[in-house]
What does this fold into?
Amino acid sequence: MSKLKTRFIKYSDSGFEKKFNILINDEKKSNNKINIKVTKILNKIRENGDNELNYYVRKFDKINVENIKELFIPKDILKKAYDGLKKEQKNALNIAADRIKKFHIRQIPKNFNYKDKFRIDLGLTHSPINSAGFYVPGGKAIYPSSVLMNAIPALVAGVEKRKLISPISDLNKSSIVLAAAHVAKVTEFIRMGGAHAVAALAYGTETILPVDKIVGPGNAFVAEAKRQVFGKVGIDSIAGPSEVLIVCDETANPEHIAIDLLSQAEHDELAQSILITTSQDIVSKVTLAIDRFLTEISRSKIASSSWYDFGAIILVENLNQAIELINIKAPEHLQLILKNAQKIISKVKNAGAIFVGPYTPEAVGDYLAGPNHVLPTNGTAKFSSGLGVIDFYKRTTIVNFNKNSLNKLGKHVITLAEAEGLDAHAKSISMRINR
It folds into this structure.
């Protein structure tokens, strides 16, 4: 392996702010060529349905079928895949699913109604969307955990039609993904991926009914497709490459820190892993450990590209500086390995998920901690949150005036409507009240 250098930045360096901004704003987003290609694919699917979808499935997913119906994996095949798992795999899936379900059940929102001082009945009610599509990547790797994380919250919310799409070309090699779909009780599993699959879920074809919302991360083409179909359907977010920010002091185990950084880097060449520490000794030891681990892990090439292109170690003078950088970065995953980690959690305003202490590596969140692993990336944790049950609900408000309450408040409505020049609004009130 070539001896590439780890990017190292000191908070006390002149020009630190510029260096940090370059680090967190490295261009990893979809480019204009991707936008144009995705637009073409979406339009083709919308205009030509099954025929065009079959063309793209053959071209990109390398799945050859005569009829789109052949892309649907029957539920008995999902059950067979589950039954054929090794005992430890079956046990792990069930434990993960149970923990995810229990955490998400606690998120079910409560309806409310009340009568105010004017005797007006006001309320808010939640109802599940009718259908949802779950995107689960299947190109470079298989992700049974993503099946559970996407599908179980919708199941808990009461979504009736729950469709999973994933570009699985070999059912045997992906048996654990099929098994996860059985455990998560998806209602349909369709073998397809990419922008064309997103288009099929958004617009529908002769064979595939459209859904109300599409969730789940994918590559740049999937992200761009979700962006373009938003408005026709709902989406969770525009997912970017995965990322972790680890903040530690001298009490941390440098080898644990190093492997935690690489566990994020091995996801994708564009993933980003950053360490912020108050200890120069940690800087040196983590750097050495990373170099060693990169010669040992199976996805070394991917992890190496991610780490040396987008990773960094930042030395700060104190935790206040670290907190400042956390909130600027707004990381998808934040690990705090500090003597007094609990004391700074309240100061963290922007993070998708926080993992506290030396025995809570981010990897537990990927699989079975309970909270969702579909999280905001690219700094969007400043204004958005991870996938949850609430994402599969609609809110509806309820208003019920009686004659007396309209008589008491109607004059104010008329005043405001007339100020806006909306005479019909004003008249709809004045015709009903005693003036």
